[in-house]
Amino acid sequence: MNAPSAPIREAVILAGGQATRLRPYTDTRPKAMVEVADRPIIDYQLEWLAGHGVEHVVVSCGYKADVLREHLSARTEGPEVTLLVEDEPLGRGGALRFAATGLRDSGAPYFALNGDVLTWFPLDAFTAFHREKGAMASLALAQYQTSWGIVEVDEGGTIEGFTQSPMLPFWINAGVYIFEAAATELLPVKGDHESTTFPRLAEEKRLAGYRIDGFWRGVDTVKDVKEAGEQIPELFARKG
User: Fold this and answer.
1) pTM of the model
2) Which of 41, 66, 195, 207 has the most other CB atoms within 10 Å of its CB?
3) DSSP assignment of 185-220, as one string?
């Protein structure tokens, strides 16, 4: 049995999907291998997880799996990685359930990441929050930043100013999770957990949301690659 305060030592990363909105980057590689500031997304993720004590990561993939396999086999640092290849597209929920079969301790909680997320926030604080809530699963939440400019206008119709791409008072699924072992059986064999498992757990009050205080960026489009490539060097420079 795992002690309630034991650190989380394993994680899964979903690296499948063809990511058509990221073409031409994904013509020759899976989304997790797209380079942002000269490094593949998955390298940032593995380094971040290792920095918080994660020792073993299961990577679930399908599209261009050989590219990912070659890259991961050449890594000499970070957590040990097990690569699982989907025979057919399983959807995000199915891929999570499939990836969990590669975990070494089937009775322990684990982190899960979407393969297109770049983020840095304290996973120990996330874990403590999850345990304090007694949740079956917890989602990291990022504040929503619109890509549109906002027009500030008074009641009389006079424009007072403009704000480009502001943060809005809404929170979105950041694609980083903690699952208790029992939650794995609640994931669909094939399909999306966001339309099946999560609504069920929310209705049962067993789903928690942790608001991120740190950098987060989803990489879904060519524009995201460019903008994240500018943001990350600045972020690392500020951190020294």
Assistant:
1) 0.86
2) 41
3) GGS-SSS-TTTTHHHHHHHTT-EEEEE--SEEEE--
